[in-house]
Each structure stands twice: as structure tokens, then as C-alpha cells.
């Protein structure tokens, strides 16, 4: 499955193989800012080294990003498979309205986003107006099916590192974590399409993720419920 976004929501990032060298680290300023936000929540610094290794190991399945949440299955298809999730506080409608004003302030902002860039001036002006595009440590919450007493656990941290790579490539992934799709950012007045075919395609994508997920216990039920809520919103 290639990286894709169906009808604007959700975004699915294909499973990565083993990664080595500098390419395994975030390269953009916004990706690095995302990394700082979750690294500051960690109690044991050595966990970051272990989590980076896990993120590069190829053991995480496809990463799904929906409004305010991302998840992935560790060791998909195996008896020990488990789901890791990170939730991000969504910006309010009023904050998105302010962000839209800042986007429209410079004609090149949307073009930059489409080119895979997140303009620093856009983010700085939004911050000055009270809209923090990059989440802080207090905007993050996490959950995992493992037995770790502290969150974020190694599995969630590995998911967050992989998210950083995807955010590097497409800053719309960061904006979706904050609550808005590509289409909503491009045209704030546009409602999510209610066309049956488009909605069915998005629903089918979500259901396809269940092939790799553990079933019938723990966070799997929470994940399915969250996806069901999202499908209901889209439909």
C-alpha cells in the first residue's frame, strides 16, 4: 500500500522497511519540532534510543492518521501484534479560522504546502495570533496494548518517530493531527464530501487496516470505535 490520502481523510502511510543512516532521522524544521514535542514527555532518555531503533526496524505496520489521532500495529499478523496510538489535541474552529486568515495573508503559503513545505512565517504569524500549529508536550496523549506502566511507551515513541518522517514529507499530516484535512485547509468553507462513493472508499480503507490489527481485546476495541466514529463523521 503506497502513501495516500483518500478523499482528504484518513492518511495512510505504507509500512516502512529497515532504515539506516541519516535518512532515519527527521530532516525538516517542522518534523524536528514534532520530535521535540514528544521527546520532552519521556521519563527515561534511553527509551528514545531504543524507540528510534524500533522505528527503523520495519516492525511497525502502516501508519494511519485521522483527525487528532495516529495509530499503527506492531508486528502485524503475528500472535504478539499490538496497537499503539498517539492522540493530539485538535485546534478549535476559532483557531482554524485564524489560521485560514494567516494562510491567505501570503499568496505563496498554499503553494508551499502543496510543494511539501511548511512556511516558517506562516507558523510564526499563526503563533503570534494564538494558534500553535506544532503541538506541545501537553497536547499529546498516548495508549498502547503493552504492559508498560509509563506512557508514552517504546511502541508509541516508535510510532511518533515514524510520524516525524511522514510529516517531513507532507506537512498536511501534521495539520490533520491538529484536526483539519488538506481540503479543509485549502478551502476552509468546504465541508467534507458526502458523496457515497468517496465516503465508501474512505470507509473501505479504514476497514482494511483491521486485517493486520489484533482483535477482540484491549486497545483494539478502542481503535475500532475511534475509526467507527470517524467513518460516521465522514458519512
Automatic annotation (TrEMBL):
The leader peptide range reads none
What keyword terms does UniProt attach to this protein?
Metal-binding, Zinc, Zinc-finger
Q: Which residues form the SWIM-type domain?
A: 129-164
Domain of life the protein comes from = Bacteria
GO MF assignments: zinc ion binding
Record keyword Metal-binding present: yes
Tagged with keyword Zinc: yes
Q: Which PANTHER family match?
A: SLR1429 PROTEIN
Protein name per the record:
SWIM-type domain-containing protein
Question: What organism does the UniProt record list as the source?
Answer: Nocardioides marmoriginsengisoli
